[in-house]
Amino acid sequence: VVAVSAAVMFSTIGSSSETDAGMTHTITRGDMLITVIEQGTLESADNTEIKCKVRGYSTVTWVIESGTQVKPGDELVRLDTKGIEETASLQKTNVHIATATLEKTRANVARASIRIDAYLEGRFRQRVTTMETGVAIAQSNLSSARKMLDYSELLFKRGYVTELELEGNAFTVTQAELELKVKQTEIDVLKRFTKAMELESLRGNLKASKSKFEADQAGLAMDQARLARALEELQFCVVRSDRNGMVIYPSAAAWKDVPDITEGASVRKDQVLLLMPDLSQMQVKVGIHESIIDRIRPGLPARVTLPGKTLDAEVSSVASVTRPAGWWTGNVVKYDTIIQVPSVAV
Fold it and tell me: Does pTM surpass 0.70?
C-alpha cells in the first residue's frame, strides 16, 4: 500500500509540474495560528459602586439616565420615602413616651431612696419612742403596784385590810409585770425583726426601681437610635454623586430584557444602583466556549475591534468556573475571559 501511494504521489507531482510550473509552494515547518473570534462587552476594570443604604426593600421613584456626566451633589436616584417617614413619625412618638416613662421611673427611684431614710429617721424612731414610753409606763405601774402590795401586806398584818384585798393587790402586781414583759417584747421584736423586714422591703423596692430605671434608659436609647436611623435613611433616599464622572446602570441578569434599576423597580439594601466607571482602565469581557477554553490562557495576544477602531490587547485572566447556564443561554457553557485594553487606546 505504501508503495502504491508513493507512486501515485510522484505521478501526481510529475504531471502537475508538466502542466503548470507556476502553481508550486515550498512547505516549511512553523507555528499554526489559531484564531478565536467572540463578541464581548467593553467595561471599566475599576468601577465605583453606588449602593442602596436603606434597609429592607425600597421602590425607585426616579433614576438618572445611564451615561450621564455628573458633578458632585447631583441627584442620581430617588427612593420612595413614605414608609420611612411613617417609621420616623412613629419613633418620635415612642421617644416621647419613653422619655416620660423614664422620668416617672426616676421619680420612683428617688421616692424609694427617701423611704429608707424616712423609715429609719422617722417611723422607726417614732415607734421605738412610743414603745419605750409604754415600757416606762409599765415599769411605773409595776413599781406602784408593788408598793401598794407591800403597804397592803403591812395593813393585813395589823388587821386593817382583808385577805381578799391583799390578793387583789398581788394580782395587780402580776398584771403589771405581764404588761411590762409585753412592752419589752414588742420593742425587742421591732428592733430585731420588724426593722430588718421593713428595710429589706424598702431596699428591694429601691433595687426594683433602679432596675426599671435602667431598663427605661435602655428603651429610650433604643427608640432614639431607631429614630436617628430612620432620619438617616430618609436622607439616604436621595442618592447624590460625590465626584465628577459618568454614571451607568449595572449589568442586568442575562435573562432580563430591562435593567434592574428603573422607575418603579424594587431594590434592597446593599444592592448596586449605579456604577461610575474609571474610563482610564478599560477591559473587554468575553465568553469563551467550553470546547476551546483549554486553548486560552493569560498572556495571549488579542485584537479588539471597536466601532471605528482596532486595538492590540492581551488576555489578562480566564475564569476557572463557568457562567451559569440556563434557558436564556441555550444551555451553552462559557467561561468569562478578561482582555485588558491599553489605557492609551481609550
Answer: no
Q: Which residues, at least 6 apart from 237, have a Cβ–Cβ distance to it below 8 Å? A: 54, 58, 78, 79, 80, 81, 84
Burial of 251: CB neighbours in 10 Å, binned 0-12, 13-18, 19+:
middle
Q: What does the alpha-carbon distance between residue 78 and residue 267 come to, in Å, rounded to a whole number?
A: 11
CA distance 331 to 212: 63
Residues 186-243: pLDDT tens digits? 999 999 999 999 999 999 999 999 999 999 999 999 999 999 999 999 999 999 999 9
Q: What is the CA radius of gyration of the chain?
A: 51
> What are 139's three cell numbers?
415599769
Sequential DSSP letters for 98-157: HHHHHHHHHHHHHHHHHHHHHIIIIIHHHHHHHHHHHHHHHHHHHHHHHHHHHHHHHHHH
Separation CA 58–CA 237 (nearest Å) = 9
Asked whether the beta carbons of 55 and 267 are under 8 A apart, the reply is: no
> Nearest Cα to 105, choosing from 239, 226, 215?
215
Q: What is the DSSP letter of 316?
A: E
For residue 252, the Cα-to-chain-centroid distance in whole angstroms is 29
Residue type, 275: L
CB 117 within 8 A of CB 203: no
C-alpha cell at 341: 485594553
Helix (H, G, I), strand (E, B) or coil at 337: strand
Cell of 93: 412618638
335: left (phi over 0), alpha (psi -120 to 50) or beta: beta
- Assess contact for 38 and 269: CB atoms under 8 A: no
